[in-house]
Write a structure and sequence with these properties.
The longest helix has 32 residues. The chain has a two-stranded antiparallel ribbon. With 134 residues, it is mostly helical.
Length: 134
């Protein structure tokens, strides 16, 4: 894996390394297991915050065990299920748009669901600085 990713994980407090006399990073076996756990969690779409929280529940100085992984996987299951449901909704909305050709920012149910921006007034609300998440 890229050394920049390892340095980033270390800067984020997700892993730790020791330095050699030549100032090279060295990772203990348990840190390598934590890296594997981070990569697996990222492949599930979990944020670094969620991963940091999960790693905080693991004891320091030892590799995560199978039991640790199973416990974390159970905790993450609802989050993964929510992502799957959201992607399925998106898939269903996109399939209704394919070929319609409307390209209407005013009436497109996918781009402007419920016309949220119109409630804030006229004009290009997002370009005027309104947040999409309000």
């Amino acid at each position: 894996m890229a050394t920049s990713a390892l340095r980033f994980y270390e800067a984020q407090g997700l892993i730790e390394s020791e330095r050699t006399a030549g100032n090279q990073r060295r990772y203990h076996r348990h840190e390598l297991r934590r890296i594997a756990l981070i990569r697996a969690a990222q492949s599930l779409g979990l944020s670094l915050g969620e991963i940091r929280e999960a790693l905080g529940t693991l004891p320091d100085g030892r590799a995560p065990t199978k039991a640790d992984w199973e416990r974390l996987a159970r905790q993450w299951q609802s989050s993964v299920d929510e992502r799957i449901a959201a992607l399925q909704r998106l898939r269903d909305e996109v399939s209704s748009c394919i070929g319609c050709g409307c390209l209407s920012l005013r009436s497109c149910g996918l781009y402007n669901s419920g016309d949220r921006a119109a409630r804030r007034g006229s004009g290009a609300r997002y370009l005027m600085g309104d947040s999409r998440h309000e």
